[in-house]
Amino acid sequence: MRKNFFSGIQPSGRLHIGNYLGAIKQWTALQDSYEPVFGIVDYHAMTARYDPSEMQGRVLDAAASYLAAGLDPERGIMMVQSHVPEHVELAWILNCVTPMGRLSRIPTFKEKVRQNPDNVNMGLFGYPVLMAADILLYRSEIVPVGEDQVPHLEFTREIARRFNNTFGETFPEPAEVLSSGARILGLDGVDKMSKSLDNCLYLDDTDEVITKKLSTAPTDPARKRRDDPGNPDVCNIYSYHKVFSTPEELEHCAEGCRTAGIGCLDCKNILIEHMKELIGPIREKRTDLLARPEELRRILRDGGERARPIARATMAEVKERTGVAFEGTAG
Ligand code: TRP
């Protein structure tokens, strides 16, 4: 039987090609050897202020995006965190082995407090505990995450260890798996791709938008005129080519740039075609899925039903070990 692991997705915002290269490609690769549980973490999303009338839409939007980008709900489980109440049940029990001082030192918490000093709620403080519960509920041995989540994984291992020491060996200590794939910067060539910086190519951008964004993106700043030779090694567009183009195209662009044989726009046009080929089918599949919300709900309901027995089995053992259940009532 394939082992499970849990990975969480915030139901927020559009996905960009940075997400695609980082998380999604890696997850789809792991679908072969594991049965992953992809949770749309709506309870985590509640730690920031939000409009309740938008939550359902955000969840369906996230589901459509990840399915369109290649997550297979047959080979993995795609579910909504709030559909499996065992997540919060385990989080409570883990709360009771979590020192408050340890939580207050988590960098993401400190950052959120700085960003939103008027909304420092208990949920935000306990965010990492709920995340640890997500992970441990499925006895995950690995968790694919981005670099920014590493402190949460360290915390999760610590809490697993504390629980095991107090109540007996129950949880494996999960290791983070960071994406080994290529990283690209945002279109500005300065920062990593980020929604808040408006430097993204989104997985639902139209062909016109893709063309416009790439044709106006900066290249080698020293190459001011078409006749100036350029240096591909300092060109952000060339760094995209390295990820998306063929070796022949790479050679063509590098050589053409250094000798001023081709202009930046010629070089960009090759990339624009590749991006249209990558994004087009994802965008269409997403639109198609969003037009069928019933189908999305069916997939999510089915995911919840498949996740539930795994979660229940863990909770039965946890209740047994912690002594909160009478014999025969733990499940
Ligand atoms: N904190 C993660 C993020 O913001 C989301 C998340 C919640 C998660 N639970 C998880 C990620 C469990 C991995 C495993 O991206």
Short key terms for the protein model shown above:
331 residues; Rossmann fold; Tyrosyl-Transfer RNA Synthetase; 2 domains; three-stranded parallel beta sheet; two-stranded parallel sheet; binds tryptophan
Characterize this entry briefly:
This protein has 14 helices and five strands. The protein is mainly alpha-helical and 331 residues long. The strands form two sheets. It has a three-stranded parallel beta sheet with strand order 1-2-3. A two-stranded parallel ribbon has the order 4-5.
The largest sheet has its strands arranged as 1-2-3
Regions with little confidence, pLDDT below 50 for 5+ residues: none
Give the averaged pLDDT, no decimals: 93
Sum up the overall morphology in one term.
Answer: elongated
The strand count comes to: 5
Counting helices, strands and paired strands, the structural category is mainly alpha
What is the CATH domain class of the largest domain? Alpha Beta
Helix content: 40-55%
Q: For the CA atoms, what is the radius of gyration?
A: 23 Å
Total of DSSP H or I helical runs spanning 4+ residues: 14
Give the end-to-end Cα distance, rounded to a whole number of Å: 22 Å
Going by CATH, the homologous superfamily of the largest domain would be: HUPs
Bound ligands, each once:
tryptophan
**CATH third-tier fold name of the largest domain:** Rossmann fold
CATH architecture of the largest domain: 3-Layer(aba) Sandwich
